[in-house]
């Protein structure tokens, strides 16, 4: 629990706040089911963010995993 509090403090103070909070969740997930669920959600969310970032990287031929392309441009209209 101390790692979570220290990580939350490091979000506004200098230091690796998110990394310390994730480390705290890893430690707590060995004991508590809620911490295991939060850690699984965070892993899935970070994986989705990584996929979206890779899809937007220049030279990438992949579409974003969020679904079909939107109709932001007139030439994509149906």
SSE blueprint and pairings:
Elements: H1 2-10, H2 17-29, H3 33-56
Helix pairs in contact: 1-2, 2-3
Q: Would you give an account of this structure?
A:
The protein has 78 residues and is mostly helical. The longest helix is centred in the middle third of the chain and has 24 residues, at 33-56. It has one domain (2-56). Helices cover 59% and strands 0% of the residues. It is flat. It has helices spanning 2-10, 17-29, 33-56. Helix 1 packs antiparallel against helix 2 and helix 2 packs across helix 3. The protein is built from three helices and no strands.
| Arithmetic mean pLDDT | 77
| Broad structural category | mainly alpha
Unreliable sequence segments = none
Distance between the termini: 53 Å
According to DSSP, the number of beta strands is 0
Brief characterization of the structure:
The protein has 78 residues and is mainly alpha-helical. It has helices spanning 2-10, 17-29, 33-56.
Structure characteristics:
59% helix; 3 helices; 78 residues; mainly alpha
